[in-house]
Structures are given as C-alpha cells and as structure tokens.
Amino acid sequence: MSGQVLTDTHCVQQGTFYLEIWGCQMNVYDGARLADLLRACGYAQVSSPNLADVVVLVTCAVREKAENKVFNQIAAWRHRQELKQGGLLALGGCVGAELAAQALAHPAGIDIVFGPSTAHRLPELIRRCKETGAGVAEVVADSLEKFTALPAPQVEGVSSFVTIMEGCSNLCSYCIVPYTRGEECSRSVEGILSECRHDLESGALELHLLGQNVNSYRGVYADGTPCDFPTLLYEVAALPGLRRLRFTTSNPMDFSDELVEAFSELTVLADSVHIPVQSGSDRILKLMNRRYSAASYRELINKLRKARPGIRISSDFIVGFPGESEEDFKATLSLAQETGFDQSFSFIYSKRPGTPAAELEDNVPLQVKRERLYLLQETLELSAAALSQALVGSIQRVLVEGPSRRDSGELKGRTSQNRIAVFKGPASLIGQECTLKITRSVVHTLRGELCEV
Ligand code: SAH
Ligand code: SF4
Ligand code: F3S
C-alpha cells in the first residue's frame, strides 16, 4: 500500500516506547498503527513503562470512568516510581483531543498531547519536546491525513482491523465522540482496498471494517464516482484470500435495505452484527437524538433474520439516561427479552462535558441506575448463554487465533458468530481456518473437536 516514506530526518532514532491502549476498536487500530510508526522510526517497543523513554497512552473519553482510568494509572505509576527518570509521557486518543493543551497543566505530568487525527505526528512532537524541553500539544489535523502518513500495517493475527472512516456527525445527545474525533470523513475506496489487499497478502483471513457509523460511509473511487457502504462491502468481499468479513458499528437509523440484502448475497459476511439500540423507549431515543424508534429497530432485526437465518445480533445499551422512568426502562428490558441478543454491552449513562445531554436534569438516583443495569445485564446474560448453548452439536468454521489462554496445549479460534472456541490441535493451525464440531458451551466459550468438512 502507499504510505509516506519515513526518512531519518523525520525520526528520532534509538529510543524505547511503551504503549497502552484503552477504548474502542478504532483506538486499537490507531494504537497498532502508531506502534508500527514508532518502530519504523527506530524506537524499540518495551513491555514495561519503567524501561521506556516515551510512555504512550491512547485513551478513551466515552464515559467519565474511562477518562479517569488513564489519570489513575499515571498516578499509580508515579506513586510506585514506575516511570523512567527523564522519560516522556505522551497522552493521545480521545482524551488527548478532548483536553488538548489543558492536559499539559494536569497534575499527572504530561509532556505531549495528541489526538486521533494527529497520532502520525508523534515522532515529530517527541523531537520538539526534547529540543525545547517544553510540553507540546497538537490535536487538530485533517482526519484522513494519518492514513497516508502511516507506514503499511504489520499484520500479526488472522484478523485485521481496517478503519474506513473517521469521526461521527450523528450528534447523539450523550456522546462525546463527535467532539473528540470530529466530523465524519470517509477514506477513498482505493486507500481502503489497497490496505485490505496488503493485510490479506500478509496473512489475514478476516477483515473487520471500522467506523463510528459505517452505514454513513460515503467514499469516492479514483475517478470521483461516489461509493456507499453496501457497495464498499461488495468491493471488499471480492478480494482474493478473504475468508470472513465483519464491520462495526452500525447505527440502526440508516441501516439500509441494500445493507440487509448484502447479508443474503455475500456469504463471506460473518453471521453476527453489532447494532446498538441504546434504549427500547421511543421517548428516550428521541432525547438521545437517535432518530429511529423501537418499532423500526425490531423491524430491522426481523429483516436481517430473514436475509440471514441464524444471524447473531449484539447491541449496546445505556441505562439511567436523564429522565428515564420505570416505564422507559421496562420498554428497554422487554426489547432485550424479546430480541434475544448475543453478547452485548450495557452502561450507566455518564455525563460528558459539552454534550447536549449534559444540560438535562439527571434525576435518576444512582442506586436505581445500578439496579436497572443489573436487571438488564441479567437478561442479556441469559440470552447470550442460550445462544451459545444452541451451537452445541453444530459444525463451525473457525479462524485460529493462537494458543488458548487457559491451557497453552490447546488452540482458540473464532466462529462466524463471533464466539471463541477452544480445541485440541497442532500449532501449525494457528493463522489458518479449520472445522470444528462444537461439543460443549461453558459460559460463553465453546469447546470443540477438529473434524473433516
Ligand atoms: N458509534 C457507535 C457507538 C460508539 S460509543 C454507535 O452509535 O453505535 C460505544 C457505546 O458507548 C455506545 O453505543 C453507547 O452505548 C456507549 N456510550 C456512549 N456515550 C456514553 C455516555 N455518555 N454514557 C454511557 N454510555 C455511553
Ligand atoms: Fe456517538 Fe452517536 Fe456517533 Fe455513535 S453514532 S459515535 S453514539 S454520536
Ligand atoms: Fe472511546 Fe474515542 Fe472510541 S471516546 S469509544 S476511544 S472513539
């Protein structure tokens, strides 16, 4: 793939860096690419902060808890004297973008601040910081610049993330992402396809396309012809060597019929899709500015299940949104009960500075929010466990990721429904596709035995 060639003059040579990544898959992608860049610039990655000349933190701001986590971590390192004397601390990701230059004054002692769109400038920011001895903050750049400035990704596993767009313009009333990652911006079709080809040629079997709302992808071909998300899926699906295709995340608001149709036509599309509903109450969805109703969500799920029988749907939920009544919550609970979601995420609403919802009166007591979260998670847990159990006895193709975490004599792979399956097999299968007969389901993990197709 094309990437700007990095010369020595761009780079500080022979330092060490330690990298931690918090947050969503888009941060995982950014962090991995940042590690590729730092290595290309002569930095060696180390496994502990006390060995690092630069500690790099790629952070998440989506909830207050996520934001506090990074500052607590820095404070703990400082308290235990686990940071190298004279080393630099670089704060990036969404908290970097949110706080910008203010972060330099934070008692955590931060030297460099960057955001999701300026990650590729980190080597230059380190150089400036060392030269001047003063803190530097740079969080604003063209959000697509990084894709051409970063070196080709180092593919390490059987599955590769490919970010297809940056930012979000949906402005859900509770969400900080449009302010930290900026307005929606789509990568070119060629840029995406060439990165996908590179990843497949480097050993990936699965591609996972990323964006805050992939449905609103609006890219262009080299000749300027527009390309929407379903069209992009057909382009990626045609690439040689691809065994499985996933995407995250889809807003139900603009999940088109063409996209539903893709699930019946493209067999390479995985048997699972993440479609966050957030709430089952139309009143709350309106306050959240989600622009769909509980009924249209149900209708979408029915269409998808017709297009791809057996498809697994997962979701995100927010409980305790300002003004959420018992009746609103019951609507969420019954939507969860009747839909039968697979492994989903649920959170207590967190007030984010600068978002419209932060102006609403938050009149739901914390204890009530906790009880609602508990009830919802119990329901979600039951349906995810039942869906796992339903796979027992079935034959599944899995992409083998590596040794199992619990027992290194066993392997783990992922099924099309996005479940981990553990089985006995030779290490030579790592990075390959194989077939399993599923013999057991233990909580959410499947156990299987190798079998012939
Ligand atoms: N773009 C994705 C979501 C990205 S953020 C989408 O719209 O589906 C991931 C999840 O974090 C959201 O789906 C939501 O459930 C949760 N979230 C976002 N802001 C939040 C807040 N202020 N409080 C609690 N949860 C929040
Ligand atoms: Fe946030 Fe909504 Fe955009 Fe998702 S779609 S990132 S929840 S503003
Ligand atoms: Fe967090 Fe930013 Fe992702 S706020 S969820 S890391 S887009």
Question: What does this molecule look like?
Answer:
The protein is α/β, with parallel strands linked by helices and 453 residues long. It has three domains: 3-138, Cobalamin-binding domain (Rossmann fold, 3-Layer(aba) Sandwich); 155-389, tm_1862 like domain (pyruvate-formate lyase- activating enzyme, Alpha-Beta Horseshoe), CATH 3.80.30; 395-450, Nucleic acid-binding proteins (OB fold (Dihydrolipoamide Acetyltransferase, E2P)). The protein contains 13 helices and 22 strands. It has helices at residues 25-40, 64-79, 93-99, 122-132, 145-149, 177-180, 189-201, 229-237, 257-265, 282-287, 294-307, 326-339, 366-389, and strands spanning 16-21, 44-45, 54-59, 88-92, 112-114, 136-138, 159-163, 165-166, 185-186, 206-210, 218-220, 226-228, 244-248, 272-274, 312-314, 316-319, 345-348, 395-403, 411-415, 420-423, 433-442, 445-450. Helix 12 packs parallel to helix 13. The longest helix is centred in the last third of the chain and has 24 residues, at 366-389. The radius of gyration is 22 Å and the shape is globular. The chain starts with 15 loop residues before the first strand and ends with a strand. The structure holds S-adenosyl-L-homocysteine, iron/sulfur cluster (SF4) and FE3-S4 cluster. The site of FE3-S4 cluster (F3S) has 13 residues, from helix 1, helix 3 and helix 6. Iron/sulfur cluster binds at residues 168, 170-172, 175, 177-178, 212-213, 251.
